[in-house]
Write a structure and sequence with these properties.
The chain is an alpha/beta fold. It has a single domain, classed as Vaccinia Virus protein VP39 (Rossmann fold, 3-Layer(aba) Sandwich), CATH 3.40.50. It contains eight helices and eleven strands. Helix 1 packs parallel to helix 2 and helix 4 packs parallel to helix 6. The protein is globular and about 50 Å long.
Length: 240
């Protein structure tokens, strides 16, 4: 699993980081709406930089920033950015999101799109691998901290997009309202037609709109993908 992961227009090296390329990040990077033509994009907890690179491939945004707290992931992220065709538009900060959002707020910096595939297993399941914990557990970045920081640096007409476990959806949407962030779009994801819903992809803004709800099934059978999943990811995966 340490081998580079080749996408159609870029490559992700992942030998230095605890969290490897996964379906969640690809789904989010492909599903995220760019209808508002964001000029500034921020990827929170960027890991290898995969979502940032997908944003660079999909958009003309002049600034695509990433923030990553884990030193190994940060180094790998920077290297992946530098090797890509869009290195002039991509920049990674080595920082916690809490510190980063505070600093950006002080400098009056804002983002038109904030996107995150955040850590989301709670502390009860932590392992002895510190960097894996940082990448995957909410003790490093709680949902509250993520929403608070986002509300400070999202532009007035900006969009915040995230993927979380389906079981967290109701609580997260409720918490977001505390920060004046309203759910505009949701896509609920299941592995197969008969399996339970695993993930929710959510789009928020400071405006209340009519909610757009969709669902996505990934596989019809083992390694036989649904047409919806193929359509969503075909610009990225080599064999789609």
């Amino acid at each position: 699993m340490n081998k580079p992961f080749h996408f159609k227009e870029f490559t992700i090296n992942q030998d230095k980081t605890a969290m490897k390329v996964g379906t969640d990040a690809v789904l989010l990077g492909a599903w995220c709406s760019l209808e508002t033509c964001p000029d500034t994009i921020l990827d929170v907890g960027s890991g290898t930089g995969l979502i940032s690179l997908m944003m660079a491939q999909r958009s003309d945004a002049e600034t695509i920033d990433a923030v990553e707290i884990d030193p190994n992931a940060y180094e790998q992220n920077v290297a992946n950015f530098e090797k890509s065709d869009w290195s002039d538009r991509l920049f990674c900060y080595h920082s916690s999101f809490q510190d980063f959002s505070k600093e950006m707020k002080e400098e009056d910096e804002e983002y038109d799109l904030i996107i995150s595939n955040p850590p989301f297993y709670n502390d009860n399941f932590e392992t002895n691998d510190t960097s894996r914990n940082t990448a995957r557990f909410t003790s490093a970045l709680s949902f509250e901290d993520l929403l608070e920081g986002t509300s400070k640096i999202l532009s007035d007409s900006g969009v915040f997009t995230i993927i979380i476990p389906f079981k967290e959806e109701v609580a997260f949407v409720s918490l977001a309202r505390k920060y004046r962030l309203f759910l505009n779009r949701v896509c609920r994801v299941r592995g197969t037609e008969n399996s339970e819903i695993k993930r929710s992809m959510l789009d928020f803004s400071f405006y209340q709109k009519e909610l757009e709800e969709t669902k996505l099934v990934i596989e019809k059978d083992r390694h036989i993908y649904t047409q919806e999943y193929v359509n969503l990811t075909k610009d990225f995966y080599l064999k789609m």
